[in-house]
């Protein structure tokens, strides 16, 4: 009996585990789910008899190797820093490994050994990275096959909230992923290529220099650049491209309000604030403003950032509770930790909330001397706070890849990402049957 081992039973695991339990029932396979909390793992198994929950601690080498040895394919949803640890266990036990995380230098260094042992260590097979790679490469390879020459590629992905969720929320955003990663986003200089020129965006400018995006049927969005778009020139085989930009997508108006928090210094994680236990939301914001007797926090913000009293920035800050007199409720913390704690009070998903994934690509190319443009978009909506669109779009590509691997339909080996037709054609085809499809418009 073939066995899949899934490590991690967190928020991104629900759709993956459900898919593989259904597939295992049809194929006569078994599924193991390991987590530091065996109860959390058991909850994800939904009572399936082909599933087994267990406690898994990556730091316990002997027990971890024994668990890995009992599987044919390992899927790691653990924190990215643990992937190389799991990879070494897989090398020692001769098992394939799949993750949704970026390929780290430590993981990349394992390529010769994985290749030599006939193992596939597939990374970046989630949403972003993952579906973004596969959907982009499918179009890029098709353009090249037609004789076209890519001149520009732009790609943005965002995890938001569905249009009918929390309609009063002016950010159109809640935490659908790790809140800390949201607060800390973009704190290294972004690099990209525009019209043949290398461009750099330091953190203090990141949320000012945005790309306007219109997604047919869903309205206006804005994208800010990810850290290093240039690395994808080689990955995607775009040596001659003149514009290359990858970024994160937010609903229109988000970046202007977030930039206020960035400029204030609320996202700084380099020092611990004094007197956090005595702070309210309002005095936290005031701690970063000038001292001016008798002047309200709102007035100080308006002066510093040239804001209108009822403008979009202050509206968003008020809605988030950042100007309330409510106690922060932390004993200590950096500015970033305090901000995350405050925002979680309003930005946490409620049980019935639906999240919303939006992905957008724009390809510019020449074919027969004629300039052409393809815009492609993908949207996915969650069912509730557990069966989220984020969990579907991160987990399902991994589940499909694991199924293909167990069926002997993937021959590639080594440390790879899913940018070849062997991966992207069957994975995207199966995703399409599940309602996750890229829709193209050519102009």
UniProtKB/TrEMBL annotation:
Listed GO biological process terms: lysine biosynthetic process via aminoadipic acid
Origin superkingdom? Bacteria
Q: Which GO terms describe its cellular component?
A: cytoplasm
> Which GO terms fall under molecular function for this chain's record?
saccharopine dehydrogenase activity
Keyword terms, alphabetized:
Oxidoreductase
Residue ranges of every copy of the Saccharopine dehydrogenase-like C-terminal domain listed in the record: 126-435
User: Which residues does the UniProt record annotate as the domain Saccharopine dehydrogenase NADP binding?
Assistant: 4-118
Official protein name in the record? Saccharopine dehydrogenase NADP-binding domain-containing protein
Question: Whose protein is this, by species?
Answer: Dawidia soli
Q: Lineage in the entry?
A: Bacteria, Pseudomonadati, Bacteroidota, Cytophagia, Cytophagales
């Amino acid at each position: 009996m073939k066995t899949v081992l899934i490590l991690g039973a967190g928020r991104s695991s629900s759709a993956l585990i459900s898919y593989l339990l259904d597939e295992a029932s049809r194929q006569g396979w078994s599924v193991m789910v390991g987590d530091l909390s065996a109860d959390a793992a058991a909850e994800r198994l939904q009572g399936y008899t082909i599933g087994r929950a267990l406690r898994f601690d990556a730091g316990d080498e002997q027990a971890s190797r024994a668990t890995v040895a009992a599987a044919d394919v390992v899927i790691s949803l653990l924190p990215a820093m643990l992937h190389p640890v799991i990879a070494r266990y897989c090398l020692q036990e001769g098992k394939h490994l799949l993750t949704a995380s970026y390929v780290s230098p430590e993981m990349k260094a394992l390529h010769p050994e994985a290749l030599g042992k006939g193992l596939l260590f597939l990374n970046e097979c989630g949403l972003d990275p993952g579906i973004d790679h596969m959907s982009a490469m499918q179009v890029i390879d098709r353009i090249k096959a037609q004789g076209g020459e890519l001149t520009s590629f732009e790609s943005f992905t965002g995890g938001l909230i569905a249009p009918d969720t929390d309609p009063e929320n002016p950010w159109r955003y809640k935490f659908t992923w790790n809140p800390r990663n949201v607060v800390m986003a973009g704190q290294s200089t972004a690099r990209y290529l525009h019209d043949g020129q290398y461009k750099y965006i330091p953190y203090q400018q990141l949320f000012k220099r945005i790309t306007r995006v219109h997604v047919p049927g869903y309205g206006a969005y804005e994208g800010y650049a990810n850290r290093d778009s240039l690395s994808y020139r080689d990955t995607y085989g775009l040596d001659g491209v003149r514009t290359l930009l990858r970024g994160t997508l937010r609903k229109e108006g988000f970046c202007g309000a977030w930039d206020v928090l960035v400029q204030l210094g609320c996202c700084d994680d380099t020092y611990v604030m004094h007197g956090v236990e005595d702070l309210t939301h309002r005095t936290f914001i005031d701690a970063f403003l000038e001292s001016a007797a008798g002047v309200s926090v709102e007035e100080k913000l308006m002066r510093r950032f040239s804001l209108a009293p009822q403008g979009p920035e202050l509206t968003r800050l008020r809605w988030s509770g950042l100007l309330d007199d409510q106690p922060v409720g932390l004993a200590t913390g950096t500015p970033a930790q305090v901000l995350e704690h405050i925002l979680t009070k309003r930005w946490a998903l409620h049980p019935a909330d639906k999240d919303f994934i939006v992905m957008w690509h724009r390809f510019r190319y020449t074919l027969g001397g004629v300039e052409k443009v393809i815009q492609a978009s993908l949207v996915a909506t969650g069912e509730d706070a557990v069966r989220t669109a984020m969990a579907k779009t991160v987990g399902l590509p991994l589940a499909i890849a694991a199924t293909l691997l167990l069926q002997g339909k993937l021959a590639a080996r080594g440390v790879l990402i899913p940018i070849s037709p062997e991966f992207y054609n069957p994975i995207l085809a199966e995703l399409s049957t599940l309602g996750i499809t890229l829709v193209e418009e050519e102009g």
